Amino acid sequence: MSKLHLQSFEKALHTLTDMGQYRSIPVIQHQGKWIEKEGKRMLNLSSNDYLGLASNQALREAFGEQYKGRSFPAFSTSSSRLLTGAFTEHKQLETVMATIFQREACLLFNSGYHANIGILSAIADRQTLIIADKLVHASLIDGIRLSGAKFLRYRHNDYTHLMQLLTTYYAQYERIIIVTESVFSMDGDIADLPQLVALKREFPTILLYVDEAHAIGVYGENGLGMADQQACIADIDFLVGTFGKALASMGAYVICDEVVKQYLINTVRSFIFSTALPPICVAWTLFLIEQLSSFTQQRQHLYQLSKQLQSAIRLLGQDVLSQTCIVPYMIGDNLTTVKRAERLQQQGFYCLPIRPPTVPKETARIRFSLTADMTEQELNTLISCLNHQEVGI
Ligand SMILES: *Cc1c(COP(=O)(O)O)cnc(C)c1O
Fold first, then answer.
1. pTM for the whole structure
2. Can the peptide bond before residue 353 be classed as cis, meaning omega within 30 degrees of 0?
3. How far is residue 153's CA from residue 355's CA, in Å, rounded to a whole number?
4. Which CA distances in Å does 393 have to 252, 377, 386?
5. Which residues on neighbouring strands pair with residue 40, listed in sequence order?
6. Minimum-distance ligand 1 atom for the alpha carbon of 48
7. For ligand 1, atom 10, which residue shows the shortest CA distance?
8. Which of 47, 245, 281, 325 to mutate to test the pocket of ligand 1 (most atoms within 8 A of CB)?
9. What percent of the chain has pLDDT over 90?
10. How is residue 375 annotated by DSSP?
11. 3-state secondary structure of 291
12. What distance in Å separates the CA atoms of residue 170 and residue 155, rounded to the nearest whole number?
């Protein structure tokens, strides 16, 4: 590349550095729930492996056992499912997913990112109004932008504001899509899905699009997510989730009506123009999904740990909104946040400072993400470190 081009890329990186927004990929080793960075072993408090399945060696071995004496499923589909990439594993997983969700259909995607950008841009156009929660994930924002639809946001979890927007704009659009996450990744708070479902009765042109990325596997009696816990799976038009977080795999899904599935197969560009997931990966997902309802103990333990951390932080005088295993510890000032996260890392806890623009100004925080393979004792040690920090020790 010419020097001129190199310099201009370099300049952009300098600007990011000056703004404190330069990103780099950390060099870390994984050992179950532990990670090792620069020779230091730390409990991983930044993981999405909520049930501890990704770090569970026994599960991996049990999966391998299934193939003793016969060959593994293929490691590549070599093309889109619409060409020669159709494999039985994908169909099987879709059937099982639709069955456990008690809905007509399920369609797989290569990732949650593929699902969100692909589906939203396929179901919305310039005649559509999309109203999304202020804090939805970047993949949802990208999908909305790609669609070219009219786009409004309501204040985070503020359904009075949403109602005002609906009342103002309702009559002008044939299709209105409300987009939310069920568990929000930075505050660990949750959407009130039944309240959103109720809006559909008042405004029949509404479609509900819910992203369960941080909820699938973790909530609900059978681990089907927040829509399961809040008993409204049947009422959500596009129930999306990823296999990459609690489900310890890769890929994503949408639960929907059969007609919608056929429409998506015909229109979603990230589905049509991308090589389908490796059958070996889909088989692994299926292996875990079939056991999903049996991970009750993990879910209950995680629930206990979450309550414990939430109350400990509340005792430090903070207003804790989290109702999940994602628990932010609010600090406010950027520099103090970075320093405190560093201190916790020295004490053996791998947690990260989250600063603006990822979160609103003055709300820099350390984000703790608990997993079911942590012990109560490990959490107690973390809590005592937090207590000591608070009094300046
Ligand atoms: C992680 C995440 C995604 C992306 O899912 P991937 O499978 O990792 O691409 C989408 N939505 C939300 C809310 C997420 O947190």
1. 0.96
2. no
3. 22
4. 45, 21, 10
5. 37
6. 1
7. 112
8. 245
9. 93
10. -
11. coil
12. 18
pLDDT for the residue numbered 357: 86
Q: Give, in words, the CATH class of 74-293.
A: alpha beta
Q: Please compute, for residue 221, the number of CA atoms within 13 A of its CA located in the half-sphere on the CB side.
A: 5
Question: 96 to each of 105, 106, 162, 234, how far by Cα in Å?
Answer: 10, 9, 35, 16
Residue 366 CB coordination number (10 Å): 23
CA of 251 to the centre of ligand 1 (A): 10
Ligand 1 neighbours by CB, cut-off 6 Å: 111-113, 116, 137, 139, 181, 185, 211, 213-214, 242, 244, 252
Please give the distance, rounded to the nearest whole angstrom, from the Cα atom of residue 60 to the centre of ligand 1: 23
Nearest-CA residue for atom 2 of ligand 1? 213
Using the mean position of ligand 1's atoms as its centre, give its distance from the Cα of residue 385 in Å: 31
**pLDDT (tens digit, 9 = 90+) per residue, 331-369?**
999 999 999 999 999 999 999 999 988 888 899 999 999
Catalytically active residues, by annotation? 48, 137, 181, 185, 211, 214, 245
The 10s digit of each residue's pLDDT in 251-279 is: 999 999 999 999 999 999 999 999 999 99
- CA dist 129 and 108 (Å) reads 26
| Angstrom distances, CA of residue 235 to CA of 40, 98, 179, 227 | 48, 14, 14, 9
Helices 334-346 + 376-390 axis angle, to 10: 140
pLDDT in tens, 213-224: 999 999 999 999
Which sequence spans correspond to the domains of the chain? 21-56+295-391, 74-293
Q: In which element (H, E) is residue 95 found?
A: helix 88-100
Q: Which ligand 1 atom is nearest residue 250's CA?
A: 7
| Range 21-56+295-391 classified under CATH 3.90.1150.10 | yes
